[in-house]
Write a structure and sequence with these properties.
- There is one protein chain.
- This protein is α/β, with parallel strands linked by helices.
- It has one domain.
- Helix content is 50%, strand content 7%.
- It contains eight helices and five strands, in the order ααβααβαββαααβ.
- The chain has a five-stranded mixed beta sheet with strand order 1-5-2-3-4, with no helix packed on it.
- The longest helix is centred in the last third of the chain and has 23 residues.
- The protein binds zinc ion.
- Zinc ion binds next to loops.
Length: 202
């Protein structure tokens, strides 16, 4: 998803996140618990501003180990994530086969692919297997690019196909996770293919 080196965008988010640094532990825990209640029952785009705010607060809470200290009780529907014991709020990404679902608190795997509900695994697998070669085109080396008749066109076509696949994920696949998790997030962009959230219409 993102690289380790800090990009201008990372620095901007760090600046946004400073708003939460003024919250004391109790205030931060209550804000998170209340917001989890408001997130319940929906599949959320990763780009949604409410999710962006939640993620910033969640990462800070992870640093401060807020959930371990039990300052606030999250809504009962949220199970404890095995990775960091925060409430389980999984993120669905194109890397789902390798990385499973990702924790919004510690950014580690919170649900490995094998533990995704069995009735969803096949659909998720075929979606990811269709996505992967399209995404790979953005990472072709020079030799591969020169070998294509018209690389730019191929790249555009891949981006169009990925827009379609992300719409399928957002409309059809991810909402089915709500039978198993109170809320779920999906990555609604592909930065390598320059597919932006606004390109994906639901
Ligand atoms: Zn975690």
């Amino acid at each position: 998803m993102s690289t380790n080196s800090e990009s201008p965008l990372d620095r901007l988010w760090k600046e946004y996140g400073s708003a939460f640094r003024d919250f004391d532990d109790l205030t931060l825990a209550r804000w998170l618990a209340q917001t989890l209640g408001q997130l319940s029952g929906r599949a959320w785009r990763l780009s949604h501003p409410l999710l962006g705010a939640y993620r910033l607060a969640a990462q800070l809470a992870h640093e401060r180990q807020i959930w371990l200290k039990r300052f606030a009780t999250p809504p009962a529907a949220y199970r404890e994530a095995p990775c960091c014991r925060a409430p389980l709020l999984p993120l669905f990404t194109r890397d789902v086969l390798d990385s499973g679902l990702i924790c919004q608190h510690c950014s580690d795997t919170c649900v490995p692919f094998e533990e995704i509900p069995a009735e969803l695994q096949e659909e998720v697998r075929s979606w990811a297997q269709e996505y992967s070669p399209l995404h790979a085109i953005a990472h072709w080396d020079d030799a591969q690019r020169q070998g294509a008749a018209d690389y730019d066109r191929k790249l555009d076509e891949s981006a169009d196909d990925v827009e379609g696949l992300l719409a399928v994920a957002g409309k059809r696949i991810v909402p089915r996770f709500l039978e198993h998790y109170p809320a779920v997030v999906w990555e609604d962009q592909d930065e390598c293919l320059e597919v932006r959230p606004e390109d994906i219409e639901l």
